[in-house]
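Researcher: I'd like a structural prediction for the single chain below. Treat it as a standalone chain; there are no partners to consider.
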Amino acid sequence: MKTVPTSRARRGRVVLTAAAAALALTLSACGSDSAASGDEAETRTVTDALGTEVKVPKEPKRVATLHYAATQPVLDLGITPVGQGSFEEGIIPEDLVETVADVPVVTNDATEPQLEKITGVDPDLILAPNVLEEEVLKQLEAIAPVYVFTLRGGDRANWAQRTEEIADALNATERVDELASDFAKRQEEIATTYADVIEGRTVGVIGAYEENNFYAWGEKNMSGTLLEPLGFTWSAREDAVVSKEKEPEATVSFEKIGSTVGDADILFLDSNLREEVNPFMEALQGTKLYQQLPAVKADQAYVMGKNTVAGYTDAHYSLDRVEDALQDLQAK
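Model: Treating it as a single chain, here is the predicted structure.
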């Protein structure tokens, strides 16, 4: 069982060390030649999440992803990256473990880009999250074109949009349209099949990424995009807790679990893609306050997969777990 690092819930902008900056200067000095040769190749211009126009290869062949939130969409689009950001073992779908096993990790555990490693995989396109400082982006641009995708900010909940952004950079928009259509159809099928179970049910969604605190997710966050189309009603208490946050999510003390999701008939818990919760969630589950929640006392607390949706593969995994829960509720 893997511990989810506290950096997962951390906000902030990533900067490089002085040593990395020095390396970037060296790369910049020799980058002009590679840039010139790249201009000779067929390219297209796209607009990234920062509103910056980026000239990218028409058909990128060697894509480096600097965060798992890009790695999963790239894999969903049928492309294996040549370099990838760090990740926890359990968040990789079991059938993709071998696919990424030999792909070099080009960030450190804090998801900071490692310039030398990135250079070593010889990318023709770099997918970078929108949490990097401008100076870092310039250093990366000395290696290859950089497309910035949405990780944090007002559009954080729209994981499907992030996949669309990456598909645009990869010139794979037809494929992403297929993924979106298939996912919407599946949600419609679940909503229809289990309408009698879902109707009138209130759900709450929580995670835990640090000691003595849990994470509350509002209906306008990623889990909401999965559950609301099925017909569930969101916990009014949980929505109230996150209502003043810039993003509809909040870190909350264990002591406030009842006042946050005590109105939920069903509770969905963050887990990896092996139906395993982390030690922080285990600690919460061991408290009397958690055990006294109506959903828990009714044996209606279920693992759901990752609260932070990276792409269609883990979104489908979450729907798998939701269907398991609905089948259990239907049998009661």
